[in-house]
Amino acid sequence: MARYEEIVNAFWESHEGYFNKSNEVSTFAADVLNKFLNYLEAPPEAVKVRPMSGEYDSNEEYTTFGALTMEEDARWHIGVLLTLIKPNVITPRPTSLIHLIFREKPYGSGIYEVRLDEGKDTFLLDGTEESHTRFFDYLYDVIYRFYHKRLERFLGKDRIEKIGF
């Protein structure tokens, strides 16, 4: 085989490997998000995904595969949009952006290290219900504390925060 053909074959082998890993990680991420939706007992329309890098079109609906990107840190990144829907209330519908970062550890094991962007806490998701529940409990606490502290800041007597303009 000519050296050129070896280079061509190496490229396509690498390309196919990346595509296969992308499919594997997006399937894993979709499974995690479905389990999180069930954990929250939230309606399906409450959770959507978006890419965290590149162009983002808020009018476009992304699949997990389309939203998942491999970044320079050699980790997979995905944005999860959690919309807070109150029955019989059309607006407001606040949306939280949760930046999740995945990395298979060790490579080929099917076990993923997951963390929030800028988060120091990491979780190993090994496919067991217990590992998912630990991560979901943490994620729930982070989201809940964010909104609860926001209310405390708003109601606090020591501080005045400007609302609106």
Q: Could you give the count of β-strands?
A: 6
Largest sheet: 6 strands, antiparallel
Low-pLDDT windows of residues? 157-165
Mean pLDDT: 86
Q: What percent of residues adopt helix (DSSP H or I)?
A: 40-55%
Structural class: alpha+beta
Order of helices and strands: HEHEEEEEH
Shape: elongated
**Terminal CA distance:** 69 Å
Number of helical segments with 4 or more residues: 3
Radius of gyration: 20 Å
In terms of DSSP E residues, the strand content is: 15-25%
Give a verbal description of the structure:
Strands 1, 2, 3, 4, 5 and 6 form a 6-stranded antiparallel beta sheet that branches. The longest helix is centred in the N-terminal third of the chain and has 38 residues, at 3-40. Helix 1 packs across helix 3. 42% of the residues lie in helices and 20% in strands. It has helices at residues 3-40, 64-67, 129-155, and strands spanning 47-50, 69-70, 76-83, 95-104, 112-116, 122-125. The termini are far apart. It has a domain at 42-155. Residues 157-165 have low confidence and may be disordered.
Secondary-structure blueprint:
Layout: H1 3-40, E1 47-50, H2 64-67, E2 69-70, E3 76-83, E4 95-104, E5 112-116, E6 122-125, H3 129-155
Antiparallel strand pairs: 1-3, 2-3, 3-4, 4-5, 5-6
Question: How would you describe this structure in keywords?
Answer:
single chain, 165 residues, alpha+beta, six-stranded antiparallel beta sheet, 6 strands, 20% strand, elongated, disordered C terminus
